[in-house]
Amino acid sequence: MQSQPFSLYRPRFEDTSVVFASPHSGSHYDEAFLNDTILDERTIRSSEDAYVDRLYAFATECGAPFLCANTPRAYVDLNRGADELDPALISGLRRSTLNPRISSGLGVIPRVVAGGRAIYRGKMTLGAAQKRLSAHWHPYHNALRELMDTNVSRYGQAILLDCHSMPHEALSSLRRSASDMPEIVLGDRFGASANAEIVDAIEAAFQDAGFRTARNMPFAGAFMVQHYGRPQAGRHVVQIEIDRSLYMDEASITPNYRFSEVQTRLRTVIAQIADIGRRDATLAAE
User: Fold this and answer.
1) Closest alpha carbon to 70 in 1, 157, 154
2) Whole domain around residue 268: which residue ranges?
3) Residue in 278, 263, 285 with CA at minimum distance from that of residue 58
4) What is the pTM of this model?
5) 229-256: per-residue pLDDT in tens?
6) Would you call 127 helix, strand, or coil by DSSP?
7) Are 119 and 44 in contact (CB under 8 A)?
């Protein structure tokens, strides 16, 4: 992977404590990686949060920075800890403590994509894994940490919207009727990663735009929420999952006929969330 691991889009005038980030929409698959994998080019993309970067691109027009991964999730999963290394994929590792993400092949360097399909034929060395993390994982997280530190210093708080998409089939475990199925799932680790007032206001923004919402089920948030969410220190993190079937054909990984409509509705949501960052930043400063 020779491309830059991320793109950081900044507004002309930053005036909100909100930061938007998309760690799983990276789609820069270089030839060397595609030659290494046993999967075809469409299957290797099955874990990607395709087009999430386009859905939230309006963030900069609302005064908020937007950090977007270029690195594909199948190459390095930026929503995992750097120590979540999989001994079934990486040689020279001791067996790790019980970690369901690693056990299922979804560590920081994934062994499988969606559906448990193996990415590689064999193992890689620990040195190769560490080199990959140095080139991709650490730069992304350094940039994210700097954005949040800057906002805490400037506004007294930082509100991170960690933007993802979810397969429609992932919602089947909720056992709800189609008319009651959430389209947006907000994850705050059941209140541990952000103040309730902020999460309430974010959820209201999605509901005002006509989206059905749920909290923490089936997704409560992974590494970003767990690691960066420190509400007592003014660091609030909410994971946002949007049903992929709303805006794309999941089989072909292409935008569907509703893409523009969903994008337009999200523009109003983003603007409202940016306003939350202005209002709450004033209160935090006071």
Assistant:
1) 1
2) 6-76+135-285
3) 263
4) 0.94
5) 999 999 999 999 999 999 999 999 999 9
6) helix
7) yes
